[in-house]
Amino acid sequence: MCGILGVVATTPVNQLLYDGLMVLQHRGQDAAGIATAEGNTFHLHKGPGLVRDVFRTRNMRALPGEMGVAHCRYPTAGSAWNFAESQPFYVNSPFGIMLAHNGNLTNTDELKEQMYRQDLRHINTNSDSEVLLNVLAHELQGVASGCRLDLDTIFAAVAGVHRRCRGAYAVVAMIAGYGLLAFRDPYGIRPLVIGINETPEGDEYLLSSESVALDTLGFRVLRDVEPGEAVFIDLKHQFHARQCADKPTYAPCIFEYVYLARPDSVIDGVSVYETRLRMGEYLADKVAAQIPVEEIDLVIPIPDSSRPSAMQLAQKLGIPYREGFVKNRYIGRTFIMPGQSTRKKSVRQKLNTVGQEFKGKRVLLVDDSIVRGTTSREIVDMARAAGALKVYFASAAPPVRYPNVYGIDMPTRGELIATGRSDEEIAREIGADALVYQDLDALKASVTDLNPKLTQFDLSCFNGIYVTGDVSPEYLDAIETARGGKPRPQPVEEAAAPQMQLNLIAAEQ
pTM of the full predicted structure? Predict the structure, then answer.
């Protein structure tokens, strides 16, 4: 879950990319980077922290050019605190490529071995994004005729990436002296949308993880990049697109709609806000079947992403909706914070109760999902401490029982509260009087109702079925071992970093 941007414009793009990263900050808070192209010269600045902390005026001035890519990082592979793994990544051969990647490869180790033994390429970090960059570079080198590139060569190289790389990847990349390349894995797991801005000087193009960046930057949504498709915008601002995968399948990650994306985004033709309203409608039916409606005095959301579901649920059941928690907006998203103790402490810093909404009331708390259970447990405790007589809990998503290996940091089954536990056991773990989960079919319908063309999804964290077909129990065990975790039983039910100017000379530090 990273945020990526790629732009070809008629004016300098440094401020445009900075503003776009600010809009996508929710997708990654660990590191940020911007790379621009000025003729054949790349300029790059990246570092750890929030976008506003990484970039200063002097950094922005050192990023000239009318083409660029940008990235905000949420680490899922490699080290969260290794500054060298912030993106974009650069490789000087062939031609010079700068790349930003959202997603996670599932065959990284195999590719690293191929890079070393067959391709004679050195991978300098533990990041799968650097591996992906070198695969692209090697494929370009293999199909290029001499020192020139054409469209057929570029798209053939992307086809080679699809043949070699498995997992999830949405990519934006600059090729020095040629243009901006973007592509999406053959399943379209991670999102990528194309925007256009018609100006008197020519058309400008922006690619982004979410449409909200296009809206705020004045671009009109053109369409989504199709699964397996590559698009290329050359230096004359000509737009080219080609399908580069043999058998593409639309199977986007449904967790984007549940939690990851901003509600004002449209992903694969579906409004995230509308899907969350639908989730609330379907969840209302499930709540009514399991908890007597007259036993619920108030419906209270866990801010922010559960609000649409909670409002729709309350309206359908005829129960008053209230805001019982006040959020400190200067605390990051607890879902993407490392370590249980850090997340637990952050919950109390992030949320505070409005006491009168709980005292003497039977409340139904609605959240978008329950992952590790740390936040849910703390919130139930806070509701009881504020005087709630009963605390019911409802999740707009089904139980998260399996790891997600496609770019969301859920790789250890031991961290997932639903793995190996029944709903009743989970309710006891979080301290709720009753717990209601969304049905998986209802979650799928929340999206399909709005775009019938979307019939398949990556639902792996809910059902353990991995759409790429290459994730084995041994692979999952290896991930857990690497993180120091132990496999759980099977479920009972289904500071600023260096500034670099990449003209082959290290510049301002």
Answer: 0.90
